[in-house]
Design brief:
Strand order of the largest sheet: 3-2-1-4-5-6-11
Radius of gyration: 19 Å
CATH superfamily of one domain: NAD(P)-binding Rossmann-like Domain
Strand content: 15-25%
CATH topology of one domain: Rossmann fold
Structural class: alpha/beta
Low-confidence stretches: none
Largest sheet: 7 strands, parallel
CATH architecture of one domain: 3-Layer(aba) Sandwich
Number of helices: 12
Shape: globular
Oligomer: single chain
CATH class of one domain: Alpha Beta
Helix content: 40-55%
Order of helices and strands: EHEHHEHEHHEHEEHEEEHEEHEHH
């Protein structure tokens, strides 16, 4: 049994991760501040299954306050830091809020862990750090110095903070660059979720950017498996930080996303087009060689299968509006 503290536990990825950890026998403490980016009720629903499990406990706290986190940490704890303000486009409207949550928050997490004896830390970064100039498929040793948004910049800054803290404080850090995660409980602002709700309501959907823009979509269970493998990896890793891509190694064009979603919903959407949005990369593509070699990571859920599972959750959550 491992004791694991998960920040951002009420979010999309966090709630799935804590369920997987308690299911395998770990004792998990979830931490979340219920940031109002989307409704608290949705996040409470995310936690419903975990709260029923005797191996799970929950603390409502803000990770930017190291004094709130420090009492939860000791030398036998693994710290999984998922808490963040998410989203590329909203970060342009609130760069200060994103810097506070994502950069100051990560510095506070490292500061809280310092001196507790804790050495094992897993951090959720983002494929957005690669920007639009990294050769594809993206490798972890790419420079990643041309972020396209405040969000991407804050994630890269957080990586650098943890890399510097690792050597100073004796941390063994796995930084996970996540590639467009989708599945049940996906954040309501993301494209697949937005498209599904609008199509179920009989409303048109807007596709922004070029028709051949593509994303490396990764199903939630694959990301959770990668995160669990990273947690275990920190148990024998040397002091320092390693970066790992968690993706599917298959860029999927926006047109295929719409076609796959349409088939799963059995609905034909009304489509309008819009210009590319600030901060959106043209395409993303994960090189998985390092994650496969060091974590044993493999993406196993085909896109059509994952989309069918997401649609089943949507219909259960929102009702069969069509």
């Amino acid at each position: 049994m491992t004791r694991i503290v998960v920040t951002g536990a009420a979010g999309f990825i966090g709630s799935h991760l804590v369920e997987a950890l308690v299911a395998r026998g770990d004792r998990v403490v979830g931490v979340d501040n219920f940031d109002p980016f989307y409704p608290r009720a949705a996040k409470e629903a995310n936690l419903r299954a975990a709260r029923r499990h005797p191996m799970f406990s929950f603390v409502e706290a803000d990770v930017t306050d190291p004094l709130a986190l420090r009492p939860l940490l000791d030398s036998d704890t693994v710290l999984v830091h998922l808490a963040a303000k998410a989203g590329v486009r909203p970060s342009f409207a609130d760069p200060i809020g994103y810097a506070r949550a994502n950069v100051v928050g990560t510095a506070a997490v490292a500061d809280a862990a310092r001196g507790t004896g804790l050495s094992r830390l897993v951090f959720a970064s983002s494929s957005s750090v690669y920007g639009d100039v990294t050769p594809a498929p993206f490798r972890e040793d790419a420079a990643a110095v041309h972020p396209l948004s405040p969000y991407a910049a804050t994630k890269r800054a957080a990586e650098l903070l943890l890399a510097s803290a690792a050597g100073q404080f004796g941390f063994r850090v796995a930084a996970l660059r996540l590639f467009t995660v989708y599945g049940p409980r996906q954040r309501p602002d993301l494209a697949i979720h937005t498209f599904a709700r609008r199509m179920m309501a009989g409303e048109p959907i807007t596709l922004f950017g070029e028709a051949d823009s593509a994303r490396d979509y990764t199903f939630i269970s694959d990301v959770v498996a990668g995160a669990v493998a990273a947690i275990d990896w920190t148990g024998h890793a040397p002091v320092g930080m390693e970066v790992f891509n968690l993706g599917s190694n298959r860029p999927i064009p926006l047109s295929e996303v719409v076609a796959t979603l349409s088939a799963a919903l059995r609905l034909e959407p009304t489509v309008t087009r819009g210009p590319a949005q600030p901060g959106d990369a043209h395409s993303t593509w994960a090189d998985l060689e390092k994650a496969e070699r060091l974590l044993g990571y493999r993406a196993t859920v085909p896109f059509a299968t994952g989309m069918a599972r997401f649609v089943a959750w949507c219909e259960e959550t929102y009702g069969h509006q069509h």
